[in-house]
Structures are given as structure tokens and as C-alpha cells.
UniProtKB/TrEMBL annotation:
Keyword Thylakoid (UniProt): no
Protein name: N-(5'-phosphoribosyl)anthranilate isomerase
Sample GO molecular function, one term: phosphoribosylanthranilate isomerase activity
Pfam families the UniProt entry points to: PRAI (PF00697)
Pathway: Amino-acid biosynthesis; L-tryptophan biosynthesis; L-tryptophan from chorismate: step 3/5
InterPro entries: Aldolase_TIM (IPR013785), PRAI_dom (IPR001240), RibuloseP-bd_barrel (IPR011060), TrpF_fam (IPR044643)
Keyword Amino-acid biosynthesis: yes
Biological process annotations from GO: L-tryptophan biosynthetic process
Gene behind this protein: trpF
Family listed: Belongs to the TrpF family.
Keywords for this protein: Amino-acid biosynthesis, Aromatic amino acid biosynthesis, Isomerase, Tryptophan biosynthesis
Entry's EC annotation: 5.3.1.24
Enzyme class: isomerase
UniProt lineage: Bacteria, Pseudomonadati, Pseudomonadota, Gammaproteobacteria, Oceanospirillales
Species per Swiss-Prot/TrEMBL record: Neptunomonas japonica JAMM 1380
């Protein structure tokens, strides 16, 4: 099965449409104000309103209050929620939307145990660990830490770019890959050439 691609950190409609034209299955919108990729919910709603059908829109939160999450979901009408903080499974299921849970690959993490505690999620997303940073570090982690039994169901993130995504897909064989900084000209602003190069490498890996 071909590996799916999510482009995260969308802040402009033109970047969203470029990503979709290149082959993106999902777009991510960051609603975490300290992030350089933060987008105002009203702007995200405007972008989402011009998207074609069959593109999954994803809202990223970090330990946000439930009321704020509900307000943003109602405004943007996103399809999927992505939680990057210390949210409990009980917290994650309260919004009447499917969700994915990001797990940062901290040294000593019992990945199987952590993933099993979020059995209500659609998937877990694995990202690099950097103290004090909930995601978007631009760094990768050792992919051989992912148990073989989990690989076909995970979303792989962390430092992916055109130079390494084919290797990542060939080695891990994940369900999907998630990229943000690796296809940017600057934080929050995507680079069309980098996006197209990324998808060419994904296609090459999928065809191997």
C-alpha cells in the first residue's frame, strides 16, 4: 500500500493548494501559539473553505483547554485532531472527532505501552524528542527504535525532507509520513519546489 503524506504547518491557501496538487492526502494546521507555524483559526477556516474534497484537514493542539479546542473545531470544521502534549486518552476522546496522538521518542520510552494506552486513536504519530519542544524540531530519531509490529500503522514524523524520506519509507514502511519544516522556505511558509521534490522521493520509494 502506498504511503500517505501529510503536510503540516499550513498558513497560506496557496501552500495548501500546492501541497494538494503535488499529492498530499492531509493538511495540518497548528493551533499552538508559541509555534512559529501557528495560524489564526479564522485564517485556517478560510483556507479550509477553498479546499477540494477528500483532503483530510487536521488541527494540531498542545495541552489546550477543551473549550478552545471545541471553539476551533466548530469554526474550522476540521476532520481530525492531533494532540502533541500530555493529553490523556480521556481528554482526547471528548471532542466528537477522531484523533491521532503524537508520541515523542524520548530515550527509554516504552512505545508499545504508550501506544496501547491510546487505543482509541486513529493512529500514533512518532516525532523526535527535544526537551521543552512539543514538536516541529526539524530533527529525526533512530527509526530502528520502532517495533516491527507497529511500523505499518504509524505516522512517521521528525526531520523528514526530500533527502531522507525515501530511505525512511523503505526502512520503516509506515502508514504515512508527516512533514513541515522539510518543505519550507521559512517557518510556516512552504516552498513549492521542496514540496514537489519531497513527493517525487515519496513516489520513488512507493514504487520500489
Amino acid at each position: 500500500m502506498a504511503v500517505r503524506v501529510k503536510i503540516c504547518g499550513i498558513t497560506r491557501a496557496e501552500d495548501a493548494l500546492t501541497a494538494i496538487a503535488a499529492g498530499a492526502h492531509s493538511l495540518g494546521f497548528v493551533f499552538y501559539k508559541p509555534s512559529p507555524r501557528y495560524v489564526e483559526p479564522s485564517i485556517a477556516a478560510d483556507i479550509i473553505s477553498v479546499l477540494p474534497p477528500f483532503i483530510t484537514t487536521t488541527a494540531l493542539f498542545v495541552d489546550e483547554s477543551p473549550d478552545v479546542v471545541k471553539e476551533i473545531v466548530a469554526l474550522t470544521k476540521v476532520d481530525l485532531l492531533q494532540f502533541h502534549g500530555k493529553e490523556s486518552p480521556e481528554y482526547c476522546v471528548q471532542f466528537e472527532r477522531p484523533y491521532i496522538k503524537a508520541l515523542r521518542m524520548k530515550p527509554g520510552l516504552d512505545l508499545v505501552q504508550q501506544a496501547s494506552s491510546y487505543s482509541s486513536s486513529r493512529a500514533v504519530l512518532l516525532d523526535a524528542y527535544k526537551a521543552g519542544v512539543p514538536g516541529g524540531t526539524g530533527e529525526s530519531f533512530e527509526w530502528n527504535r520502532i517495533p516491527q509490529s507497529m511500523r505499518s500503522s504509524i505516522i512517521l514524523a521528525g526531520g523528514l525532507c526530500a533527502e531522507n524520506v525515501a530511505q525512511a519509507i523503505e526502512q520503516v514502511k509506515p502508514f504515512a509520513v508527516d512533514v513541515s519544516g522539510g518543505v519550507e522556505e521559512s517557518a510556516g511558509l512552504k516552498d513549492a519546489n521542496k514540496i514537489n521534490c519531497f513527493f517525487k522521493e515519496v513516489a520513488r520509494a512507493n514504487n520500489n
